[in-house]
Each structure stands twice: as structure tokens, then as C-alpha cells.
Design a protein that fits this description.
Distance between the termini: 56 Å
Low-confidence stretches: 1-5
Strand content: under 5%
Shape: rod-shaped
Mean pLDDT: 81
Structural class: mainly alpha
């Protein structure tokens, strides 16, 4: 089944602000393209590469994954902190309303 909500495979950098979320999307797009070249329709080409080149492509995928994780961690932490602040605000409002 095709994904009808799929994003374009290439997002020109001039179309993206350098926000953490956009950097994550860009890295995910790069990783997705790399993995498509190694799997599925690109599997034959990948299999034709030397073991050293296959290893380097997997290494690149691993590096991209680590870079994405490094970008996701602070975004997740900030979202969590905002959620905690919102809960504290709501709790304070409830306590004040009960007073």
C-alpha cells in the first residue's frame, strides 16, 4: 500500500529554515534515500558493491541515525518541559479555583 502522505524525497535546503525540526526532517530524508538505495529496488545495486563500500554505506546510515537522535533529544526534552509547565499551570488554576 502506497503512503499517500509521503513527503518529497528531496527537500532543497533553501526551502527549509534551520530549525531543529527541519534539520531532523532533512536528516530523515537523507537516511530514507540512502536506505532505499540499499534495500528494495536498490538491493541489486547494493549487492553489486564491494564489501568495503557496503560497509561504508551502512556506516553512513548509522552516522545519520546518531545525528538524528542528537537532534531529537533536545526537541523531546523541550517538549516535555513545556508539557510539565502546562500541567503545573493547570494544577495551579485548579487549586486557585478550589480556594
Amino acid at each position: 500500500m502506497a503512503n499517500t502522505n509521503a513527503k518529497p524525497a528531496f527537500i532543497p535546503s533553501e526551502c527549509m529554515d534551520e530549525t531543529p525540526v527541519n534539520l531532523i526532517e532533512k536528516k530523515l530524508c537523507q537516511l530514507s534515500s540512502l536506505l532505499h538505495a540499499c534495500h528494495g529496488g536498490g538491493q541489486d545495486n547494493f549487492d553489486d558493491l564491494s564489501p568495503a563500500h557496503r560497509n561504508q554505506l551502512i556506516w553512513l546510515a548509522s552516522d545519520l541515525t546518531e545525528q538524528i537522535q542528537d537532534l531529537v533529544d533536545p526537541v523531546r526534552d523541550e517538549a516535555f518541559a513545556r508539557g510539565q509547565k502546562a500541567l503545573a499551570t493547570q494544577a495551579a488554576a485548579i487549586v486557585e479555583a478550589q480556594s
